[in-house]
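Retro notes (design track)

What went well: tokenization of the new backbones is finally stable.
What didn't: we kept losing track of which sequence belonged to which structure.
Fix going forward: every design gets posted as structure first, then sequence, in one message. First example under the new rule, 418 residues:
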């Protein structure tokens, strides 16, 4: 009997050790309760991002890191979310290379063990498939099709590359129509580069202007995305003769980088173009520091998908204060705002998820019925906006060497993409 009792005690002890080891393995893999989830402890949530900090073309989204850090700092100073502060480890650089973006995402998840990727702001981000497979949430500016149709990718502006039949934005065209007093009899020419995101943007934005009543007289996606062309004349000639042999009323540029914009707009003005020019990237305080660049972009109407920094909205005053506190003297840029609002939405979903935090619970809260309005960026609704844009944007005009709010943030109904 004594020998049997000793044997029984030994079996119980072995089972307890095995159970403890299994629990430890589950915790290490991210299973179990909140403290067992990857990147989550009783007091912290770890996140990191992927940005195009450097690239061959000079395009950089590095300021998104400052914006996210500023928003997280305010949240932490307020006690965090459900007692957990945000441990922000910064952002990896993908060099505008899809393979490097994939490697960066894997490093953050597998080595750094982050809970989520915030912010992701990289035009050629290559980590989407991996993150979707692993069930890892990621937040940023949805600039390409890799953001669309996922359960884990949360663009603060929704999905800018909807599939045919899904909702496509009309806000840019409608905001421009309101600004100029109507679109009747007005023509538009859309210039993009040959990158996948730019070409798809040309398709959706062309339809935005058509839906607002403009006549589309040209869509050119032949501009090389790697570097500005040595000769702008072929592109300018097409634009200047696109409207029955004459110039269009409006040129819309869907190309990334100040060098491209300065080259194209300078060449257009030299050719005698007197119409309107609008793009998505020229709202950048850096251009004001260079008189030559500022002159080349004078009169351009930029279309940010957030409320401009010059706005008097309380949410923008808060953004300015947060950035100044986190990084005194920092120049406010479009990329900074994108990082800030991506972090803001992440925090909102984190709050809605509750104290028991795992990726599964987080994604369930986000994709169940998440509806968040904020004058800073408009409105976001998930799961709806996994397949279409949020339909919101503003207009800013460079006038007299300074940016001025042309149209405050406003949202419009989407229309099915043809």
């Amino acid at each position: 009997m004594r020998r049997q009792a000793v044997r029984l005690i030994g079996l119980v002890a072995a089972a307890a050790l095995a159970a403890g080891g299994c629990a430890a393995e589950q915790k290490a893999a991210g299973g179990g309760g909140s403290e067992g989830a990857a990147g989550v402890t009783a007091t912290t949530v770890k996140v990191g991002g992927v940005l195009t900090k450097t690239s061959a073309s000079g395009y950089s989204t590095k300021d998104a890191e400052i914006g996210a850090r500023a928003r997280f700092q305010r949240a932490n100073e307020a006690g965090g979310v459900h007692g957990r502060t945000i441990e922000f480890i910064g952002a990896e650089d993908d060099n505008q290379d899809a393979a490097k973006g994939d490697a960066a995402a894997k490093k953050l998840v597998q080595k750094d063990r982050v809970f989520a990727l915030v912010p992701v702001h990289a035009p050629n981000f290559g980590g989407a498939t991996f993150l979707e497979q692993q069930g890892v949430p990621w937040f940023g500016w949805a600039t390409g099709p890799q953001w669309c149709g996922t359960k884990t990718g949360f663009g603060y502006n929704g999905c800018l590359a909807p599939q045919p039949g899904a909702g496509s934005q009309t806000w840019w065209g409608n905001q421009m129509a309101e600004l100029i007093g109507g679109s009747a009899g007005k023509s538009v020419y859309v210039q993009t580069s040959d990158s996948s995101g730019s070409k798809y943007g040309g398709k959706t934005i062309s339809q935005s202007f058509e839906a607002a009543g403009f006549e589309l007289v040209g869509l050119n996606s032949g501009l090389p995305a790697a570097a500005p062309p040595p000769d702008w004349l072929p592109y300018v000639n097409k634009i200047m003769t696109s409207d029955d042999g004459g110039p269009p009323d409006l040129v819309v540029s869907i190309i990334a980088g100040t060098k491209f914009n300065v080259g194209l707009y300078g060449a257009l003005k030299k050719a005698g173009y007197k119409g309107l020019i609008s793009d998505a990237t020229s709202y950048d305080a850096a251009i004001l520091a260079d008189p030559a660049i500022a002159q080349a972009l004078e009169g351009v109407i930029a279309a940010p998908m957030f409320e401009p920094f010059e706005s008097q909205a309380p949410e923008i005053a808060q953004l300015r204060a947060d950035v100044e506190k986190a990084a005194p003297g920092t120049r406010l840029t479009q990329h900074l705002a994108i990082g800030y609002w991506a972090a803001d939405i992440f925090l909102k979903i984190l709050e809605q998820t509750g104290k028991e935090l795992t990726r599964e619970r987080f994604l369930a809260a986000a994709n169940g019925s998440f509806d968040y309005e904020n004058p800073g960026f408009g409105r976001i609704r998930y799961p709806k906006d996994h397949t279409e844009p949020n339909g919101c944007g503003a207009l800013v005009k460079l006038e007299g060497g300074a940016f001025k709010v042309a149209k405050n943030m406003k949202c419009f109904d989407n229309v099915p993409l043809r």
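Added context from the reviewer: Confidence is low (pLDDT under 50) at residues 1-32.
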